[in-house]
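Researcher: I'd like a structural prediction for the single chain below. Treat it as a standalone chain; there are no partners to consider.
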Amino acid sequence: MKKITASYYRQLQEELHYLVKKQVISKEQQEQALEQYEVKEGLSTLSIILAIGAILIGLGVLIAVSTNWSQFSLLLKFSILFISTLASYVVAFALQHHFEKTARAFYYIAAFITGASLYFIASLYMNHIETGTIALMWAITLIPLVLFLVDLPITLLFAASLLWASAGYATIFSFGILLILPLIAFLMWVNEVKLKESKLGFFSVVLVLVVWIAALMNSIDVPGIVPISLIFILGIALFFNHFEKYFNLSRWLGTIIISITSLSLMGRFTWQAVSENSASIYSTSFTIAFAIFAFALLKYAPLQSIVFIGILIARLYFDYTFDLIPQSLFFVIAGLLMIGFGYWFERTRRNEGQSHA
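Model: Treating it as a single chain, here is the predicted structure.
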């Protein structure tokens, strides 16, 4: 049985009902077709409201504790952190069977308080708090909740903690940053197996992976060309993916990553770490290769190809005309190019739509 969103299911119902009215299929065939699909649970309005409420409560507790933290005794500090965390879990578990969505809100509160507790406890014993380590420990404490709730919001919170941990380790290398990689693999597994291929979950995996690569390379102090090249390769892998479920999302994520990194790789400054004397040769070679790549994709992926061609034109225009013509004329021509590019993009989309019709 295939899981689809509620909107797709309603659309399918309407289309099948139309075919029944036209006597193309029978009522029994309509019911048999609908039985092959199941509506997957999404983020309902109630879930969003409860999640926001949980965040507000968590922030309120955090502010109340942080503003009076220095005035509390050591025993009171531990008591507040322990009791508030335990109480949230007890209330959540008590409501689990009869008020499931409300119970989830208390699980979210418990997750936030756990992260805050780690930070406050670290502040008691450390003069300098390593945010990367705190965030990594928080991510590890979230793993049981991720597995127990099988819930998109808590999974996204887990992804956010990995983002925070990666950013925290970006300045100084630590063994902790290497531990993030298996947690990213775990996040991908949860999204594929537990959440049944959530697109938002897949996006969070890609985002965390990009930030982790950039942070790792920065922490070991390698030239900027290395992380940019690695992220560019990741973009290529996403663009030419074979994920049926994420085909369009993955291709556009790859398009965005390739576009951003190629802007840097087409510049001479990026290649100076490789060879200062040959930087211009490397950047020009990459620009030529990227141009060939962009035009070669016109039949394979026309919309994305147009984006790449636009990026190429913009880069060349800025590089070779900014210092040669008056700034007013520069911006006028840039505006005309953007309008022309937009017209070409719209016409290509229209022609593509007509060819599919």
